[in-house]
């Protein structure tokens, strides 16, 4: 069976061979690109995440307006083929600067990123499989998990207080051993360090993952892998506001923008362990009033198919009714240890029983 690197190399070569075949047969070269328009992004109830529909567009060398886009895609494909062949990687920023030396250029990095995503969806591979990496690192992980990166074994409990950093190339990382029963992912690094200091990893036999806000693709891939390969339940502990809800839901059901790779990133069985409107009331938490943009966003979530179950509808409507939101750190009102000693045990007991 071919590994991901070999599959990527085969698909990249196949794209070039397809163009050459058209040329040698005196045909106008064309590339079939699946559509990423909103009308082609569908929520799949069975898979429980967004997927791309069957619509696609044709980019043809016979269309003067499309020649540049095809050329840009082929230049990036050739660049990626070289990266994968030599087992190297490049950041998206490096790709943009390398392109300055090509015969076709990009107006800005956003344009090169978009063409890179077009290549990703056309080949059905993630950009990481093609050797392209984002600038940001993945999340921090703390707990009894041993991984292997190449010839090096790393234990996330012995990697220092900041823990093990998930690399963008997470699919090349092997899970060697673990001694945990669950994963608790928290939105902020402030809460991550609080849980590490209070030894929540011991108390809950858990990996603690610091998401650093919106989870990077590598982080989402890590969570999916530990859920499926290690059979560990995933709990997401975020702020009690529409943005915290969204960060959690992107982990659970993926994003519309990444519908073409959600099968690699979404973890539909992950559970929300974060602050809810009910918690705000029951724990009498310090709050801030909802802003107009918060209210607008909550109403948008009510129309989003990912939030259609009773739990989300009830909590969103209740938050709109009380007009308040709260951060994870608001539990500090009762002492720094309260979130570990009282709140999380009660929430986990509620979810797991």
UniProtKB/TrEMBL annotation:
Its cofactor is Mg(2+). Residues 183-348 form the Topoisomerase 6 subunit A/Spo11 TOPRIM domain. Residues 135-179 form the Type II DNA topoisomerase VI subunit A all-beta domain. Gene3D superfamilies: 3.40.1360.10, Winged helix-like DNA-binding domain superfamily/Winged helix DNA-binding domain. It comes from the Archaea. CDD domains: TOPRIM_TopoIIB_SPO. Homodimer. Heterotetramer of two Top6A and two Top6B chains. Relaxes both positive and negative superturns and exhibits a strong decatenase activity. Belongs to the TOP6A family. This is Type 2 DNA topoisomerase 6 subunit A. It comes from Methanothermobacter tenebrarum. The gene is top6A.
